[in-house]
Design goal:
With 193 residues, this protein is an alpha/beta fold. It has helices spanning 13-24, 31-41, 52-70, 112-118, 126-147, 159-172, 178-182, and strands at residues 2-6, 27-30, 74-78, 102-109, 151-155, 188-192. It is globular and about 40 Å long.
């Protein structure tokens, strides 16, 4: 199963994924890193009509297909919504996710002040950070609905909460129930269906 671990920059995607992958022996990679690997290893045609976006999409699909075919589990780190420099979304193409073999989306969010502390070079305001998170959340919901896969939102979650959620999906192949989420400490936020 491939779980997309989504969220804006600075919410802790890399930190949580790296710790979980190291402890559990699960594959972990960023969408950007997988695209770079594929582009470096495959000779692409010089189709002057293909955009970088198209090529990157094809490269990510190739990587995801290969991982899914191997039967291995993976935490795929990335963003769902494409954002402009200032709080505006560049739109989302839900069909871009169809060939990634995703089994679930785990969306991470953090308080805007925390995000801004983690990204000192960020010139966004707390209001803009919250708007970016809202746009990422709405995009993740649209993708999950389109693909008929579960989406769990974790806000300011602990390493333990992240691990429990990933375990529920990867070990049992099913999402954690909202009742289980409510019985645990804050960090579990909501399971979308």
């Amino acid at each position: 199963m491939i779980i997309l671990v989504a969220g804006i920059h600075g919410v802790g995607k890399t930190w949580h994924c790296e710790h979980y992958a190291h402890r559990r022996g699960v594959l972990h990679g960023s969408a950007k890193g997988l695209v770079r690997q594929v582009l470096a290893s495959v000779k692409w045609s010089d189709d002057r009509y293909a955009t970088n976006r198209d090529r990157n999409r094809q490269a990510l699909e190739l990587a995801a297909t290969s991982i899914a075919a191997s039967g291995k589990s993976m935490l795929l780190e990335g963003n769902v919504a494409l954002m402009g420099k200032r709080a505006r979304t560049l739109g989302i193409d839900v069909t871009a996710f169809e060939r990634l073999s995703l089994g679930a989306i785990l969306l991470l969010e953090s308080e805007p002040g925390t995000v801004l502390q983690r990204l000192p070079a960020c010139h966004a305001s707390a209001t803009e950070v919250e708007l970016f998170q809202q746009q990422e959340r709405e995009s993740a919901q649209a993708v999950a609905r389109h693909l008929h896969i579960p989406l769990m939102l974790l806000r300011d979650c602990s390493d333990h909460t992240f691990g429990q959620t990933a375990d529920a999906w990867l070990k049992r192949g099913q999402p954690i129930s909202i009742e289980t989420a409510r019985s645990h400490a804050p960090g579990f936020h909501r399971l979308y269906r």
